[in-house]
Amino acid sequence: MDSFETSTLDYRQWIGSTDAELGTALADTSKIHRYQAFNGQAFNVLEVDGRRGEGGPVIVGAASFDCRIDPLLTKRMGILAHHSGARVFMAELPGVTVDHADPFHTRGAWQTPMQTAMAAAGNFDMLAKKQLKAIDSIAHFQDGDEIQLFGQSMGAYSAASMARVLAKNSYRKQIVISKMTLVEPVNAWRNNNAIEHFKMVRNLIVNEDARRQVYLDENDLIGHPTAAYEQLTDETKRIHQHMRSRISQRMAAYAAGMGLRKSLYTVLSDVISDRDPGGTHLHEADITVARASSSTVSLDTDLLALSDAAHEQGVWLRLTEFEAGAGDPTPLGHHSADSLGRMADLALYMANR
């Protein structure tokens, strides 16, 4: 059985850093593209360009569960782009979105019945394919282009589903995955026990959401105050509550949440077994699956079981556990990367391995 490597996420080294040093300066030059599909479905794609001169990697990912493109996510992806020297694209989950030009009357913010049904059953391929198309409409990929996949929490499922879409050769272009980093995947191993899933949801709400404010407060401590979208102004709070109350968006988010019970392993199984030799596979990719040391929803036993199953198919996964720095008593949980200093350490970890 494998063991975890450890890496430190320590916000304190970023105290007094400038926007340019931290990477949040890129948020000012980022772009939010409104993707409109032929069937009228619409959602946002964030583009942040941290390349220094020509070249540089392309990092592709997706926002997490019930998470829309907002200033906090934009700054976090600015940090990732800066320290990786990369062009970063993050797609919203189709059906969960805010049209920033018309936030109270968002059109196209829905999923097709088939997308919702498949997501609820644990198959996110239709959504991932749509996300890839939306990103491709901006990036203009060519056959043979390399990308890195990144996802956190629900975004880990979206990133893994993008890999599966490419592995099954069901995307119109041959895109090579050079790296994949999945952080804090919930229910990584195949566990369909209803009681365990109830515990997972309870832990997310009771433990992890409560901890989140600690990480947001650390942004003030380093001199980069950044709150969650719903905390910015009374207007953004109203928009947030309005969008979460829309039946179409609630169904899209809840269906995705239900699908998590099928496990990350189920999503990745086709990819790591390389069942379609004509498609993209992960045997040559650098893959990391990581958890926070005190997470109550991304369990070490699940990640170890996932790694063992992958190794049986000839795919090597790096397992990493993120810890707080020496003398820092803060428990690192599911939302640790909402602390911009800790996000910077995560970005450096990704860039330097």
Structure description:
With 353 residues, this protein is α/β, with parallel strands linked by helices. The chain has a single domain, classed as Alpha/Beta hydrolase fold, catalytic domain (Rossmann fold, 3-Layer(aba) Sandwich), CATH 3.40.50.1820. Helices cover 42% and strands 16% of the residues. The protein contains 12 helices and 9 strands. It has helices spanning 19-22, 71-84, 113-120, 125-139, 154-167, 194-221, 229-232, 234-245, 247-259, 264-273, 300-312, 340-352, and strands spanning 5-8, 31-36, 42-49, 58-62, 87-91, 146-152, 176-183, 286-292, 318-323. Strands 1-9-8-7-6-4-5-3-2 form a 9-stranded mixed sheet, sandwiched between helices. α5 (154-167) runs parallel beside α10 (264-273). The longest helix is centred in the middle third of the chain and has 28 residues, at 194-221. The radius of gyration is 19 Å and the shape is globular. The mean pLDDT is 91.
Which key features would you list for this structure?
single chain; 353 residues; alpha/beta; Rossmann fold; 9-stranded mixed β-sheet; 42% helix
Number of strands: 9
Shape by Cα distribution: globular
CATH class, named Alpha Beta
Rg on CA atoms, Å: 19 Å
Provide the succession of SSEs.
EHEEEHEHHEHEHHHHHEHEH
What percent of residues are in strands?
Answer: 15-25%
Distance between the termini: 22 Å
Question: So what's the oligomer here?
Answer: single chain
Strand order of the largest sheet: 1-9-8-7-6-4-5-3-2
Number of helices: 12
Mean pLDDT: 91
